[in-house]
């Protein structure tokens, strides 16, 4: 348990805090952990989230921005008035809790099936696509000079990286080959504007309340690149959870997303968005294959990993629907 | 020759036991994991049921498309290489239809409730 370390940490950075309560681990990532707890305070308890890499998990995978960068980005987004939790404390070595940060807990729902079906979100659903367009515009408008160091990606590099990763599995997938060819043939080239890209702007990383979007989470894949990538990624069919005729997260239309984005003062390039939707579909498919590898080789020999490996075929049918659609 | 019951019947019996007798009496994270386990066994049953037929049809289409014979994995490797090199594309007669049939057969095993699959299956049977 981490209770003693957490008490010491919280009482050192939060004036008046006397302890912690209700420590729980809502989700279990392998290299990054999320813990929920309350800061006990005479003026009323304060909901908090610890996001950390435990000690000994220092080395981040090549695509990860790093927890320090995540904390900085969340704080920047918060300060810019975007829906983002306030960062309360960035862990130091003295905290003895690994690397990471503590942020305010935002109440709401992240589970797509509930957001798409529960009555309490019925009023929010028709607003979400437009709201998220505006939020994306805000993210892409964060000033470059204030951003932490981030990797820079382009469409051309992304095609090469995804292709290399797919080939490393040594398992032929003609539909993925077709998608790689299509992406190469339709590569839009360098973006006129390079901005902060959230990199994982979709269900699961969005806290939704009955009033709409409350927070954008998980900046692990943040990078510099083509802003249209975020708009394409949120349209990937895998995040529609069955509502396949509503391309934005199963709740809205591209038109609404784009209108919100332009309300946020930025221009949409629909051709680039389509490119990134195809790219995103392939990327999720390749990620599913990667889960299969991790299941087989280790360290995570879980049934869940194994079954996600069997979901790569979902992206194959979605790629065919995008690239070789059959008539109605 | 191995005796009966068949692997399909054996696997289905385990899945039914877990689903009908165990699932109602456990809760929390273990209930979630049990659902995953039952889904896995159901997938195995679907694969054992349909694999022979769909593999044979796939190999047959690939041989015609590529003009060579070989194992299913080798034929798929050859097709993958030809698509990568641009020697075969969607303008090639039979490619689109082959990829569709192959993918539908995979979804029928992996995820028959996937909405895109159900939509496309509706087209098939029209």
Spell out the key features of this protein.
heterodimer; A: 328 residues; alpha+beta; Phosphorylase Kinase, domain 1; Aminoglycoside 3'-phosphotransferase, Chain: A, domain 2; 5-stranded antiparallel β-sheet; two-stranded antiparallel ribbon; 9 strands; 16% strand; B: 126 residues; mainly alpha
Architecture blueprint of SSEs:
The complex is a heterodimer of chains A (about 325) and B (about 130).
Chain A: H1 3-13, E1 19-28, E2 33-40, E3 46-53, H2 67-79, E4 87-90, E5 99-104, H3 112-117, H4 125-140, H5 155-168, H6 174-185, E6 195-197, E7 206-209, E8 212-216, E9 223-225, H7 228-233, H8 254-263, H9 270-297, H10 303-309, H11 312-323
Antiparallel strand pairs in A: 1-2, 2-3, 3-5, 4-5, 6-9, 7-8
Helix pairs in contact in A: 4-8, 5-6, 5-9, 6-9, 6-11, 9-10, 9-11
Chain B: H1 7-22, H2 28-66, H3 72-85, H4 95-110, H5 115-125
Helix pairs in contact in B: 1-2, 2-3, 2-4
Summarize the structure.
Chain A has 328 residues and is an alpha+beta fold. Chain A has helices at 3-13, 67-79, 112-117, 125-140, 155-168, 174-185, 228-233, 254-263, 270-297, 303-309, 312-323; strands at 19-28, 33-40, 46-53, 87-90, 99-104, 195-197, 206-209, 212-216, 223-225. Chain B is mainly alpha-helical and 126 residues long.
């Amino acid at each position: 348990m981490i209770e003693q370390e957490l008490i010491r940490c919280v009482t050192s950075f939060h004036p008046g805090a006397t302890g912690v309560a209700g420590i729980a681990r809502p989700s279990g990532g392998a290299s990054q952990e999320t813990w929920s707890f309350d800061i006990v305070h005479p003026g009323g308890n304060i909901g908090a989230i610890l996001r950390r890499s435990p000690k000994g998990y220092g080395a981040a995978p090549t695509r990860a921005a790093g927890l320090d960068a995540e904390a900085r980005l969340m704080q920047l987004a918060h300060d810019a008035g975007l829906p983002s939790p306030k960062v309360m404390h960035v862990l130091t070595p003295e905290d003895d809790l690994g690397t990471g940060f503590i942020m305010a807990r935002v109440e709401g729902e992240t589970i797509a099936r509930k957001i798409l079906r529960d009555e309490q979100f019925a009023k929010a659903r028709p607003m979400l696509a437009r709201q998220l367009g505006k939020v994306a515009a805000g993210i892409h408008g964060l000033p470059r000079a204030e951003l932490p160091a981030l990797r820079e990606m382009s469409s051309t590099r992304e095609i090469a990286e995804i292709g290399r990763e797919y080939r490393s599995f040594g398992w032929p997938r003609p539909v993925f080959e077709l998608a790689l060819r299509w992406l190469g043939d339709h590569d839009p080239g360098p973006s006129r504007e390079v901005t902060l890209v959230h990199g994982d702007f979709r269900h699961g990383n969005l806290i939704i309340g009955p009033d709409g979007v409350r927070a954008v989470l998980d900046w692990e894949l943040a990078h510099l690149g083509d802003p249209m990538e975020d708009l394409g990624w949120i349209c990937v069919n895998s995040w529609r959870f069955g509502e396949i005729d509503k391309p934005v997260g199963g709740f809205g239309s591209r038109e609404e997303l784009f209108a919100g984005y332009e309300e946020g003062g930025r221009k949409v390039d629909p051709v680039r968005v389509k490119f990134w939707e195809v790219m995103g579909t392939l990327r999720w498919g390749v990620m599913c294959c990667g889960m299969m590898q991790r299941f087989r080789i280790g360290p995570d020999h879980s049934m869940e990993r194994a079954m996600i490996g069997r979901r790569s075929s979902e992206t194959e049918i979605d790629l065919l629907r995008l690239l070789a659609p059959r008539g109605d | 020759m191995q005796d009966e019951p068949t692997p399909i019947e054996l696997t289905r019996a385990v899945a039914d036991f877990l689903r009908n007798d165990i699932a109602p009496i456990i809760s929390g994270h273990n209930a979630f994991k049990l659902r995953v386990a039952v889904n896995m066994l159901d997938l195995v049953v679907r694969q054992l049921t349909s694999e022979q037929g769909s593999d044979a049809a796939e190999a047959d289409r690939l041989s015609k498309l590529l003009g060579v014979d070989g194992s299913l994995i080798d034929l798929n490797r050859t097709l993958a290489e030809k698509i990568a090199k641009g020697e075969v594309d969607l303008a090639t007669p039979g490619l689109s239809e082959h990829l569709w049939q192959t993918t539908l057969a995979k979804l029928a095993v992996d995820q028959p409730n996937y909405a895109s699959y159900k939509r496309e299956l509706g087209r098939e049977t029209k």
